[in-house]
Amino acid sequence: MVGAHVDDYGSRHLIAADRWIQDSAQRYHIVRWEPSAQFLVARNDAANPADAGRWTRIDWMPLPARDGWAWAFCLATWDAPTADSAARVMTADRSVPRRGCGGHPFTRMRPDSGNGTTTGRYRDG
After folding, report:
1. pLDDT tens per residue, range 16-54
2. Distance between CA atoms of 38 and 90, rounded to whole angstroms?
3. Does residue 21 lie in a domain region?
4. Are 59 and 27 in contact (CB under 8 A)?
C-alpha cells in the first residue's frame, strides 16, 4: 500500500508508513497499522477541511488482478474521538465490496502513473 496511487474517482493518494495524503486537501497521520486485520488508524490533520483532529480507521482489501485495480479501501470511521475508539469500529464488510463500506462501495486503488484525470495534486510535506 505504501506508494503513490490513484482511486476510481480520480483522486491521488500518497501513502507512507506514517501518513496518508489524499490530493492535497486531506492528510492523515498514521499511528497504528494492523496488517493481519487489514486496517490502520490515523489522526486527521488539524488543517483538514472536515473532522480535523479526530480519528480515522481505514480498512483495506486486496482485489483480484484485473483491470489494474490492485486493492480497495473503506473509511470505516473518520470522526472517532480517540484512536482506540476508531480501532474498535467494525463497519466495513469485505465480503461485499460493492456495498460493504457503510452501504457504499470500497474505493478501488491502482498505482499512480501520473496520467489520468485527477481532482487535484498531492504534495508530500
Report:
1. 999 999 998 899 999 999 999 999 999 999 999 999 999
2. 12
3. yes
4. no
